[in-house]
Write a sequence for this structure.
């Protein structure tokens, strides 16, 4: 494993039949204040994945989420691995913040974050019951 300051970061994105959201998810990764070292997309239809020159695509017809994540994990070369769903977005400083946590706390093995719900215009939705 690398020293903390040079930790490699990988983002694994799972996409299954929701390709209309994928460009937004990918943009939230590409515009990180600290760029990940690699982006892996697990897709049931690789031809629909945009930015093919910036991502490593793995085709998976398996509908099981766990199987897809394992495939992405095996292909990853990162020391820190981030998971993102096709219809979710990363905060612009996610990679930076998580790397800082691992740099300052040597006994951390996982980080879970809070989430905000947004509407189609990007506004924060306060009524989370709409999504239950």
């Amino acid at each position: 494993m690398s020293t903390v300051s040079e930790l490699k970061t990988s983002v694994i994105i799972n996409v299954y039949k929701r390709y209309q959201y994928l460009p937004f998810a990918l943009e939230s990764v590409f515009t990180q204040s600290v760029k990940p070292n690699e982006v892996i997309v697990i897709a049931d239809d690789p031809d629909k994945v945009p930015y093919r020159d910036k991502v490593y695509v793995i085709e998976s017809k398996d509908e099981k989420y766990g199987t897809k994540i394992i495939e992405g994990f095996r292909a990853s070369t990162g020391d820190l691995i981030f998971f993102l769903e096709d219809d979710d977005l990363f905060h612009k400083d996610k990679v930076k913040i998580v790397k800082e946590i691992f740099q300052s706390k040597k006994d951390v093995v996982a980080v879970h974050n809070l989430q905000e719900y947004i509407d189609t215009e990007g506004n924060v939705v306060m009524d989370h019951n709409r999504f239950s």
In short: The chain has three helices and four strands. The chain has one domain: 7-106. The first helix runs from residue 22 to 30.
